[in-house]
C-alpha cells in the first residue's frame, strides 16, 4: 500500500504544479512578447504577384516570338533548298529527297501557323 501512496503523492504534486498558470513559474513570461515593428513589404503583396505574373507572361511571349523567328528562318532555308533541287532535276524527274523536303516544309509551315493562331 505504501507504493500506491507514494505514487498518489507524486501524481498529485505533478498535477498541482501543472494547474498553476505559467506566470507563476519563475523565468518564464506569461505571454510572448509582441513584435515591436510590424512587417510591411515595400510593395504590397497583390501588386508583387501581379508584377511577377506580368514578367512571366512577357517571358513566355518573348520565347514564343523567338521560336517563331527560328522556325520561319528554317522554313526559308528549306524552301531555298527545295528550289535548288527542283532546278537541278529534269522536267519529268522528282527525287525522293525533293518529296521529303516538300513534306518537311509543309509540316513546319503548319506548325508555324498553329503557333500564330494560338497567340497569348
Descriptive key words:
120 residues; mainly alpha; 70% helix; 0% strand
Explain what the structure shows.
The protein has helices at 2-19, 45-88, 96-117. With 120 residues, the protein is mainly α. The radius of gyration is 39 Å and the shape is rod-shaped. The model has no long low-confidence stretch (mean pLDDT 76).
Q: What is the H-and-E element order? A: HHH
Strand content: under 5%
Assembly status: single chain
Query: How many strand segments?
Result: 0
Q: What does the average pLDDT come to?
A: 76
Largest sheet geometry: none
Cα(first) to Cα(last) distance is 84 Å
Count of DSSP H/I helices: 3
Please give the radius of gyration in angstroms: 39 Å
Helicity, as a percent range: over 70%
The best one-word shape is rod-shaped
Uncertain stretches of 5 or more adjacent residues: none
Structural class: mainly alpha
In short:
With 120 residues, the protein is mainly alpha-helical. The protein contains 3 helices and no strands.
Topology, please?
Layout: H1 2-19, H2 45-88, H3 96-117
Helix pairs in contact: 2-3
Amino acid at each position: 500500500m505504501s507504493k500506491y501512496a507514494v505514487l498518489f503523492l507524486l501524481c498529485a504534486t505533478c498535477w498541482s504544479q501543472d494547474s498553476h498558470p505559467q506566470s507563476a513559474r519563475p523565468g518564464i513570461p506569461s505571454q510572448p512578447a509582441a513584435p515591436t515593428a510590424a512587417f510591411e513589404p515595400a510593395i504590397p503583396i497583390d501588386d508583387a504577384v501581379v508584377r511577377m505574373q506580368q514578367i512571366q507572361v512577357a517571358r513566355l511571349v518573348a520565347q514564343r516570338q523567338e521560336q517563331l523567328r527560328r522556325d520561319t528562318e528554317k522554313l526559308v532555308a528549306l524552301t531555298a533548298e527545295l528550289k535548288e533541287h527542283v532546278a537541278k532535276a529534269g522536267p519529268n524527274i522528282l527525287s525522293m529527297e525533293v518529296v521529303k523536303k516538300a513534306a518537311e516544309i509543309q509540316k513546319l509551315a503548319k506548325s508555324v501557323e498553329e503557333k500564330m493562331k494560338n497567340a497569348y
